[in-house]
Amino acid sequence: MSAKIKIIPFGGVRENGKNMYAVDVNGGIYILDCGLKYPENELLGIDVVIPDWDYLRENKDRIVAVFLTHGHADAIGALPYFLSEFNVPVFGSEMTVALAKISVGNEPKVKDYDDFHVIDEKTEIDFGDVVVSFFATTHSIPESLGIVLKTDEGQIVYTGDFKFDQTAKTGYQTDYARLGAIGQAGVLALLSDSANAENPKMNASEQELAEAIEETFHYRDGRIVVACVASNILRIQQVFDAAVKTGRKVCLTGQDLEKIVHTAMDLGKLSFDDDLLITPEQVEALDPTETVILQTGKMGEPIKALQRMANKQEKQLNIQPGDLVYIVTTPSHAMDTTVAQTRDMIYRAGGEVKAISDELNSSGHAYKRDLQLMMNLMKPQYLIPIQGEYRLLNAHAQAALELGMPADHIFILAKGDVLTYADGQMSLGDGIDVSDTMIDGIGVGDIGNIVLRDRKVLADDGIFIAVVTIDRKKKQIVAAPKITSRGFVYVKANKDLMQESSDIICKTVQNNLDNKEFDWGHLKQDVREHLSHYLFDQTHRRPVILPVIMEVNQHHRRTGKSKPAKTNQPETKPAAKGHQPKGQKSEKAKPADQKPAEHTKSKPHRRRRRNNHAPATDKQD
Asked: Domain span at residue 243?
C-alpha cells in the first residue's frame, strides 16, 4: 500500500526565519525545526514572531516528534512556546539540544520539560511508517544536521541551514559520501535552504574569515566592540582565537551569551584559557588596545543592543570615541534599513563601523552553485525551496531549472499550503489557515492585526480625544466638549481647528439626542466619522479618534425623606461648584453604554448635601 504524504510549511517560506515544516505520512505528523523570527520595522513593539499552530492543536494526537537541525533561533526559538502546548519528544544533536534546553529553561511553563533525545549523523530511528535518519552539514554552529524521512514512496530530505566549505574543521564538516548515498537511494522531495540563493559568488572559507578577524584585531588601536549572534559558535571561537593572538581580553555582555559560551565550552565546542574573559568592571582598568567587547544583545540579536550602546543606554558598556564596532555576523536583507540606522548612531557616538561582509562573502548559507551541487547529489524528483523571501525561493527555482528540472516539479510554497503526494503525483491541495503569532512581553498571541494597525496609526498621526457630557433625559449637552490631542497637532497653535471640532461634536451629539431611536454605539461612530472627515480635510492626517461620552441626570425626583443633619456636625463640603436646589438628591454615576432599563436610582443620602452631581462614569471603546 502506497503512503499518503503531505508537506505543510508553518513558516520559513516567503520570509526570513521562523523555520517550521510538518510532514504528514499516513497520519503521523513529523515536525522539522521550530523557529522564530525577529520582527520587521512595522511590527511596532513586538519582540519576536513565531508560527501559528491552530492546525496542530486540532491534530495534536497525531504529532510524532520534533526534529531540530541546529541551535540557531530560526530553528529552535519557538520551541518553548510549542512545548507549552504539545508534550512531544524533541530530537537533536548534543549541541543543539544543549541550546534548546537553555531556551526552554527560560520559559516557566516548560522549565521542567525533559523529553530531549540526543542523536548524531549516524542515528536512525524507526517509527514504523517512517525511518528518520540524519546527515552532517556545514554551518556556523557545530553539529548542524540535515534530516531524512524514509517512506515507502521515497525519501523526503530537509537540508536545514548549510553551505559547502572544503576548509571546515571537525564538527563543521559535510559528509559528502552520505549525501551521495542518500541520492542513490532515491529522493522524492528536497526541502532546501534558499537564504543565499541570489548570490552568484562563492562564499569565503572560514579560514579566510578567521584571518580577516585576526588582521582587524592586530592593526586596530583602541577598543573593539564585536557584534555577533550569540549562537554563532564558530564566529565566537574565531574572535577568541584572534584576541589571544593579539594580546586582548574579551568581555562578554549578557547572561544569554555567557550561558551559551559556557555550555559550548563544557561540551568541548569552544576552547580558550580561563584568563581570557574579563568582567565589565575590569574593562575600565585595561588599556583600550587590550580589550574586546563581545556584544550579542537580547536573545542573541546584536543590532538593537548596538543602538542602546550608541545612545548611552547600557548600564556599563557604551560606545566611546575611538571605538571600532566590528559586525562579524551578516544580517538578513530585511534588516538593511535598521543596520544603516545603527551605523549612523555609532558614528554620532564617536565610534567607527566595520562589517566583515563589506570585504568578504561571509554567509553561512549555500550560494547558487552550492545549491546546484546539493541537487546534483540528491537527484530529487521534486524541489521545494524554503528559508527565504519569495525572490530567494524564486532564485533557487531558477537554479534548478538550469539543471534541467521540470518546472512543474518545483513548488514555491506559502505558509499553510498543503503539498500532497498520492498515486505517484505531487500536487497542491486545499490549504490551511496559518498566520503569525506575535510575542509582546509575556503576551503570546494576544497582539493581532487590529492592535498593530492602531499602533501604526498612533505612531503616524497621533490621537484625538473628545470628552462630552450629556443629559439624555433632557436631550441636551451639559458641558462643552473637552478636546485633548497627542501627537496630532499642537493645540495652542490650532485654536480654530479645535473650536470647529468642538462645534462638529456638539452638532453631531445633539442630532443623536434628538433622535427617538437613540443608540450609544451609533453616537460614538457618528462622532468619529464626522470628526475624521473634517480633520482629514484640514490636515490630511488620520489620528485615532477616541470619543468619551459621559452621562449625567440632574432632575430625578426624590425617592425618600432624608434625615436632618445633626446640629453638632458640620455641613458636608460641596463636591463641586454651583448650587443645587434644597432637598435634591444626587444620583450615582452610570456607564454611558448601559441600557436604559438598567439605569437605577440611587438610595437617598442620609444627610443633606449642597452640591452638583458628579458626571457618570465615562464610556469609551
From this structure: 206-357
Residue 315 sits in the same domain as residue 388: no
**Total number of domains constituting the chain:** 3
Tens-place pLDDT, residues 36-74: 988 765 545 567 889 999 999 999 999 999 999 999 999
Rounded-to-10 torsion of CA 356, 357, 362, 368: -170
Closest CA to 612 of 480, 506, 513, 478: 478
- What is the tens place of the pLDDT at every residue in 535-569? 888 888 788 888 888 887 655 554 444 444 443 34
| Alpha-carbon radius of gyration of the chain | 32
DSSP E strand boundaries for 324-449:
324-327, 352-355, 380-386, 419-422, 425-428, 436-440, 443-444
Strands 145-151, 224-227: pairing is unpaired
Asked if residue 557 is part of any domain, the answer here is no
Domain boundary pick from 338, 357, 376: 357
In terms of DSSP bridges, do strands 90-92 and 116-118 run parallel, antiparallel, or are they unpaired? parallel
The C-alpha angle with vertex 39 and arms to 235 and 443, in degrees rounded to 5, equals 115
What is the predicted pLDDT for the residue at 609?
Answer: 42
| Distances from the Cα of 15 to the Cα of 20, 60, 400, 562, 596, angstroms | 12, 26, 20, 71, 52
Round to whole Å and give the CA distance between 589 and 616.
Answer: 4
- pLDDT at 7 exceeding the cut of 80: yes
Q: Last residue of a domain, which of 500, 523, 551?
A: 551
Q: What is the pLDDT of residues 489-524, one digit of tens each?
A: 777 788 888 888 888 888 888 888 887 777 878 888
Distant-in-sequence, close-in-space partners of 196: CB < 8 Å, separation ≥ 6? 163, 203, 363, 365, 366, 367, 392
